[in-house]
Amino acid sequence: GAVVSQHPSWVICKSGTSVKIECRSLDFQATTMFWYRQFPKQSLMLMATSNEGSKATYEQGVEKDKFLINHASLTLSTLTVTSAHPEDSSFYICSARPPGGDSYEQYFGPGTRLTVT
Amino acid sequence: GQNIDQPTEMTATEGAIVQINCTYQTSGFNGLFWYQQHAGEAPTFLSYNVLDGLEEKGRFSSFLSRSKGYSYLLLKELQMKDSASYLCAVMDSNYQLIWGAGTKLIIKP
Fold this sequence. Notes:
The structure holds 2 protein chains of 2 kinds. Chain A is mainly β. Chain A is built from no helices and 11 strands. Chain A has strands at residues 4-7, 10-13, 19-25, 32-38, 45-51, 57-58, 67-73, 76-81, 90-97, 107-108, 112-116. Chain B is built from no helices and 11 strands. In chain B, the strands form 2 sheets. In chain B, strands 2, 4, 5, 9, 10 and 11 form a 6-stranded mixed sheet that branches. The interface between A and B is medium-sized, with 18 and 20 residues.
């Protein structure tokens, strides 16, 4: 089956620093990747849709200058949280959609837990 | 607006059957998904319904009625490991997933 990895699985950083999270599709090429954020006891909230070779599409209310997304290859997308603040502490999950096939296919990474102190 | 409703929490007994309901109002419909999410982990795919009716997959079944904007996930022969949150999500006309808040299922011995 399709496998998506994320790195790191958890990270603790100081307020004001930047953190980069990687999302990789290990055994398929992903033309589209999605970045979600999930606060405790809440549902997933889509932050942005990332298409390989083009700019990401951000959801309303998500600051594109704060959450930088780069989808430079068909197997890698990165999310950089710039100048992180404690309120950015959350569970960040990526998912990837393989090209072709059924449009509903979407495979999730294991998530990255970010804690900003 | 788009809306997905599902109960916040349910409790059931090991070995029993539980039904988790989901109602939705979305702009367009390209299928309904059920995901299981254990605490601290990413969601894992359970089922996908795009046509009306019941889809059975082992102990889990999922039902869809598009005219009623309604789905349920049925879990049989409950096991302790089924304790998790169950997320209902609808794919809208833009092929974007709209997520419910999830139902936390607690299984008691």
